[in-house]
């Protein structure tokens, strides 16, 4: 039986390289894994121009050829990636495509400590109760206007040392050092733009991996979003980035494999 394509949508500030401990075992197990680089995250301008729509377009462009070929997909969405990931798969599930006489599509969605929109017209700023860039931000991120693109009104958000605890508090120090050093700037425009769909409207199986020790997205908030989405909850005793730990990555691979059957 042909294995589904695995789509991994990375979180804000992160790149595909952060997910190596998850991606490589999946590929070794025979899965084709796609990790599109979201344009809202990057070290160089014009990152500050890029919005949620740009991320959605990038994700859909990455998976469309597989759907055109009739392939099935499992979407794995981490952190911020839950927002563009949700909008990218709504209307493209197996059930949606079958109703149009088409083969293939998304068969399951797995949220990992992710922002699963509980309602349409919701932004990340809405979900973390930030009204605009002038509001207080968590002390582990640093909003700043782009220094190279003076005409850009939306700024860039970079991480500071406080992110070590928020994102990597249970990660080995060497791994956490490398992960933090590899993060990039993020467009605040992607945080302000509102999504089009609630996670609950996805016509496919949904699982939410809730990280109980998460210092970035509180566990209670994760469970709330999971329940609003109608997702099965799998709790892991870990922080926000389980894919950086061998044991937790193995658990994630097992979850993906179990859903892929």
From TrEMBL:
InterPro entries: AB_hydrolase_1 (IPR000073), AB_hydrolase_fold (IPR029058), Sec-Metab_Biosynth_Hydrolase (IPR052897). Residues 6-249 form the AB hydrolase-1 domain. It holds the Pfam family Abhydrolase_6. PANTHER family: AB HYDROLASE-1 DOMAIN-CONTAINING PROTEIN-RELATED, ESTERASE_LIPASE_THIOESTERASE DOMAIN-CONTAINING PROTEIN. This is AB hydrolase-1 domain-containing protein.
């Amino acid at each position: 039986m042909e294995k589904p394509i695995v789509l991994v949508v990375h979180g804000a500030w992160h790149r595909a390289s952060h997910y190596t401990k998850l991606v490589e075992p999946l590929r070794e197990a025979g899965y084709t894994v796609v990790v599109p680089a979201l344009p809202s995250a990057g070290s160089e301008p014009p990152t500050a121009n890029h919005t949620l729509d740009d991320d959605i377009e990038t994700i859909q462009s990455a998976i469309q050829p597989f759907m055109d070929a009739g392939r099935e997909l499992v979407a794995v969405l981490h952190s911020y990636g839950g927002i563009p990931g949700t909008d990218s798969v709504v209307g493209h599930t197996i059930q949606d495509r079958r109703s149009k006489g088409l083969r293939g599509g998304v068969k399951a969605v797995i949220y990992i400590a992710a922002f699963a929109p509980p309602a349409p017209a919701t932004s990340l700023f809405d979900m973390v109760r930030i009204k605009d860039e002038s509001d207080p931000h968590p002390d582990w991120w640093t909003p700043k206007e782009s220094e190279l693109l003076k005409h850009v009104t939306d700024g860039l958000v970079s991480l500071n040392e406080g992110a070590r605890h928020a994102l990597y508090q249970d990660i080995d120090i060497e791994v956490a050092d490398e992960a933090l050093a590899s993060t990039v700037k993020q467009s605040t425009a992607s945080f302000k733009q509102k999504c089009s769909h609630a996670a609950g409207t996805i016509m496919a199986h949904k699982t939410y991996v809730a990280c109980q020790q998460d210092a970035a997205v509180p566990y209670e908030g994760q469970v709330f979003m999971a329940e609003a989405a109608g997702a099965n909850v799998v709790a892991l005793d870990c922080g926000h980035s389980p894919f950086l730990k061998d044991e937790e990555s193995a658990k994630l691979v097992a979850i993906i494999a179990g859903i892929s059957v």
